[in-house]
Specification:
Blueprint: H1 9-16, H2 24-36, H3 40-59, E1 66-70, H4 80-87, E2 92-97, H5 100-104, E3 117-122, H6 128-133, H7 135-140, E4 148-152, H8 161-173, E5 180-186, H9 193-204, H10 215-220, E6 226-227, E7 233-234, H11 250-253, E8 255-261
Parallel strand pairs: 1-2, 1-4, 2-3, 4-5
Antiparallel strand pairs: 5-8, 6-8, 7-8
Length: 263
């Protein structure tokens, strides 16, 4: 059941992207964060662009045909399966999110090519064992073959870097050699003192549900993996040579991204 009285990150993200699948409580939260960080809509757009470029690399150059996208969010343009199946029509994608409203829009996530497959699971990143045990996942994905684990703008909603690292490791341990990790995570590394103060005020008021991380903390999620060039960057700069110029500054985006291969 959709709770219209509680903020949900997927709906708030939808609001920042200009969507209509959100409630007053999501818009209020989104506006409060935008007041503290005025370029948040740029962040949302650039994070989405990173997903598109990462999936393009994986389905093309890396030859990946299976994707596990956790923290899917509400459907919009260039969803993972749309990007992947334009390159590889036989690509298979399993989406996972914990917002019932995403489930109500899941048909838009399930418009697979005839050659490929898509599925949607209502589950929470914080319970990776439940995700991995779901029969619907195994109906679509063969975990004996490489899988791209997509954690786009979702890990920063997990409190505690050690806890988040354990979740990532649990998921990766279930995937074979040749699989990939794709993640993005907010950061305050580029924030000035005034911006930090505004975010600290929101946190003290209980109005901030995200946990920014340093470059070293984000990089630690890929420990033991082979990080793909150009390595850890702000998402707006990851293989963005064909994007419109000039690019936003790191301070305007404030989200790190990386892609890494499991050896």
């Amino acid at each position: 059941m959709v709770d219209e009285t509680r903020v949900h990150s997927a709906r708030r993200y939808n609001y920042w992207l200009g969507g209509k699948d959100n409630f007053a409580v999501d818009r209020e939260s989104g506006d409060q964060i935008a007041a503290a960080f005025p370029t948040i809509r740029t962040t949302a757009v650039e994070n989405r662009g990173f997903l598109r470029r990462a999936v393009t690399f994986l389905a093309g150059e890396a030859g990946i045909r299976q994707f596990l996208d956790i923290g899917t969010g509400l459907p919009t343009a260039n969803n993972t399966h749309e990007v992947a199946q334009r390159i590889a029509p036989d690509a298979r994608v399993v989406y996972v999110d914990n917002d019932p409203m995403v489930l109500s829009h899941a048909r838009a996530l399930l418009t697979s090519t005839p050659e490929g497959r898509t599925a949607y699971l209502e589950a929470d990143l914080r319970d990776p064992d439940k995700i991995l045990a779901d029969p619907a996942l195994h109906e679509i994905l063969d975990l004996g073959r490489p899988v791209a684990l997509m954690l786009i703008a979702v890990l920063h909603f997990v409190e505690g870097t050690d806890n988040a690292r354990h979740i990532v490791r649990t998921l990766l341990d279930a995937l074979p050699s040749g699989s990939y990790l794709v993640l993005s995570n907010g950061t305050s590394d580029f924030a000035d003192a005034e911006t930090r103060a505004r975010f600290d005020a929101l946190a003290k008021q209980g109005r901030l549900d995200a946990h920014p991380r340093t470059a070293d903390e984000v990089r630690s999620f890929a420990d033991g993996l082979e990080v793909v060039e150009p390595g850890l960057t702000v998402v707006s700069e990851w293989r963005a040579g064909d994007e419109s110029q000039p690019r936003p500054t790191p301070a305007e985006v404030a989200v790190y991204g990386l892609v890494a291969r499991k050896p």
